[in-house]
């Protein structure tokens, strides 16, 4: 008998929906609640590395995701010169295994729909516009009150409710989330035929200008600058600012700028980071995904780490017969140092850029590829 028969998952992002799907597929009664009134996904697109694709396959959704995304095996480096000159074409490590692409771009809303669809079809009960407002636990379970006036008792609560997690605060964990010093412009737009992989431009007026195909007809483009307060800009001003910053980059960027016309699809956020020291649980409440760790997307590993958290937690809950200290020690042994290595490396890449230091990025990439090639 598994360690749990009933679980509440708070938050319908990657970590939450994956946890719900893994557990419900094996007969656990799962409630998944999301405070937002409907499925949403901040931003425009996401780059999923091979180890994330491996987790999508384990969830049974790889084929669905592949149909909605755009896979590639090479990353290009281009110069911020008038021609957008290609200076290197780097084969990406197939960290998910030889039978999966090295990477895939995908619209974030599409990925959210795929994972939510899987959780629902295997039996998870999903409620939008509902959030927990109280938690009280004893040695056998957790009593939860919800914003709609309902209540429930669960063997376990999984807090997958993001960087500013309510669950984390509710169990008394204080965690400093600090800005990295960079802000990122993201835009979702039609894909020019010349964009068939991620290309990165380092230098010019910004730290990075890049793009990633997310489907046959779509891409997301991004520009990383020093962090500024852009909160008072109107959508039209955001579009104009991103277009102005992009004017220094050429090659496919010339085509991308021409199709950046929808102000509603331009977003600006700051890079932030935190990492919770173990334990990530307090009794029968555990944190996963961004609630426990977040970092700048310099390695494009945030989604993969969230999916891995879900897989490892579900494996242990289904394979053991008690929620006890041995289970938590096993969970932390498999997750904390692996995540710490990724978070530290992501922050190191950002720091090199901020300090205008030429660090040994190839060695760092190889080290992370070797780590993530090993299943979590």
Individual helix count: 10
Strand order of the largest sheet: 6-5-14-15-16-13-17-20
Which residues form runs of ≥5 with pLDDT under 50?
Answer: none
- How many strands, what sense, and barrel or not for the largest sheet? 8 strands, mixed
Tally the beta strands.
Answer: 20
Order of helices and strands: EHEEHHEEEEHEEEEEHEEEEHHEEEEHHH
CATH topology of the domain at 6-48 and 108-177 and 276-373: FAD/NAD(P)-binding domain
Helix content: 25-40%
Mean model confidence by pLDDT: 97
What is the overall shape?
Answer: globular
Please identify which CATH superfamily of the domain at 6-48 and 108-177 and 276-373 we are dealing with: FAD/NAD(P)-binding domain
Architecture per CATH nomenclature, i.e. the level-2 architecture of the domain at 6-48 and 108-177 and 276-373: 3-Layer(bba) Sandwich
Give the termini separation. 23 Å
> Which value, in Å, is the CA radius of gyration?
21 Å
Strand residue percentage? 25-35%
> What CATH first level of the domain at 6-48 and 108-177 and 276-373 would be assigned?
Alpha Beta
Q: Decide which structural class fits the backbone.
A: alpha+beta
């Amino acid at each position: 008998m598994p360690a749990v028969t009933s679980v509440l998952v708070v938050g319908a992002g990657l970590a939450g929906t994956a946890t719900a799907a893994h557990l419900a597929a094996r007969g656990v009664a799962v409630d998944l609640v999301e405070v937002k009134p409907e499925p949403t996904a901040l931003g425009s697109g996401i780059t999923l590395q091979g180890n994330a694709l491996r987790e999508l396959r384990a969830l049974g959704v790889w084929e669905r995701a592949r149909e909605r995304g755009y896979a590639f095996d090479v990353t290009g480096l281009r110069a911020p010169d008038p021609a957008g000159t290609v200076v290197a074409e780097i084969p990406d490590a197939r960290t998910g295994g030889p039978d999966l692409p090295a990477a895939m771009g995908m619209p974030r809303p599409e990925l959210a729909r795929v994972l939510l669809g899987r959780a629902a079809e295997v039996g998870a009960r999903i409620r939008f516009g509902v959030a927990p407002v109280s938690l009280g636990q004893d040695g056998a379970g957790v009593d939860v009150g919800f914003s709609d006036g309902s209540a429930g008792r669960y063997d376990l609560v999984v807090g997958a409710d993001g960087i500013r997690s309510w669950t984390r605060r509710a169990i008394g964990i204080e965690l400093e989330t600090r800005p990295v010093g960079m802000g990122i412009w993201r835009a979702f737009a039609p894909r020019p035929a010349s964009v068939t992989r991620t290309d990165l431009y380092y230098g010019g007026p910004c730290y990075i200008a890049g793009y990633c195909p997310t489907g046959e007809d779509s891409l997301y483009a991004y520009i990383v600058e020093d962090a500024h307060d852009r909160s008072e800009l109107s959508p039209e001003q955001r579009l104009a600012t991103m277009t102005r910053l992009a004017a220094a980059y050429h090659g496919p960027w010339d085509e991308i700028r021409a199709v950046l016309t929808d102000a509603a699809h331009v977003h600006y956020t700051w890079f932030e980071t935190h990492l919770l020291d173990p334990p990530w649980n307090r009794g029968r409440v555990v944190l996963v995904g961004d609630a426990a760790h977040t970092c700048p997307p310099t390695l494009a590993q945030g989604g993969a780490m969230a999916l891995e958290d879900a897989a490892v937690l579900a494996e242990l809950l289904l394979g053991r017969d008690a929620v006890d200290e041995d289970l938590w020690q096993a969970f932390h042994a498999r997750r904390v140092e692996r995540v710490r290595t990724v978070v530290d490396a992501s922050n190191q890449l950002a720091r090199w850029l901020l300090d205008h230091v030429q660090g040994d990025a190839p060695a760092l990439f190889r080290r992370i590829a070797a780590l993530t090639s090993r299943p979590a």
